[in-house]
Design goal:
about 230 residues, alpha+beta, 2 domains, four-stranded antiparallel sheet, two-stranded antiparallel ribbon, 6 helices, flat
Length: about 230
């Protein structure tokens, strides 16, 4: 890592700048002859600089390795393991339905191991969001997506429909959302990104709006009470 880098904490979701004292890295080399070739294992610890968080992130990567200029060197990256937290899932507030969060977290957790299982969980998560947030009539996922077309802004619906039309995702939108479907890793990640966007744009935006309006109401009530107290007594 460079001396100063930009980073987003997976726990508090805060964009921040990491400095030398916020992270540490180490490497171990497999120097024994084997059928796969020399390997390097790199570990990277990061401590979130946010004083309200300070949680640890741990990522381990496996690389090809070689010996040149009298030292062992790390080359092409082969595999990545997110150990802490165990996936790239973002942390969402408790007012998002737990069933939605559970499916989303599982989809993220399994994404690197099985894009099929991840996509299936994301499709179920999408259906759960549509039924909970928009109260659509239960049915095929493709029909439930059509049912919200006149309820949401065109850009959001077009994004949902665009994901629906992509490759194998589109081919399985009309089937049981619990059936394992064949998708590639890029499609699985795209579904996860869609879920994250909908949670932010619908649940979190609604809660933020509610808080702002409640604050305005409370201020108005306070001013009204103050005005009544200042009014001359008859």
């Amino acid at each position: 890592m460079s001396n100063v880098i930009h980073w987003t904490c997976p726990f508090c979701d805060r964009d921040t700048t990491l400095r030398n004292g916020d992270y540490s890295e180490d490497s171990a080399f497999l120097k024994v002859d084997n059928a796969e070739g020399y390997r390097s294992l790199k570990s990277q610890f990061i401590v979130c600089p946010n004083p309200k968080c300070r949680k640890i992130t741990l990522v381990v990567t496996l690389h090809e390795a070689g010996f040149s200029r009298n030292q062992w060197r790390t080359a092409r990256q082969l595999l990545t393991w997110n150990l802490i937290p165990p996936s790239k899932a973002k942390t969402f507030p408790s007012f998002v339905p737990q069933v939605v969060i559970d499916d989303y977290n599982e989809a993220c957790l399994i994404c690197d191991l099985s894009s099929k299982a991840s996509a299936t969980l994301s499709r179920r998560c999408l259906q759960g969001i549509l039924r909970d947030y928009w109260k659509v009539k239960p049915g095929r996922l493709v029909d439930e997506i059509d049912a919200v077309k006149d309820k949401i802004d065109p850009i959001t619906w077009e994004a949902i429909d665009a994901v629906r039309k992509i490759g194998n995702i589109g081919a399985h939108m009309e089937k049981d959302i619990n059936v394992i479907v064949d998708v590639d890793p890029d499609e699985a990640e795209l579904l996860i990104e869609l879920i994250e966007t909908l949670i932010r744009d619908w649940y979190i935006a609604r809660e933020d709006r509610k808080k702002r309006l409640t604050m305005i109401k409370n201020i108005a009530d306070s001013k009204s009470q103050a005005k009544q107290q200042m009014a001359p007594q008859s």
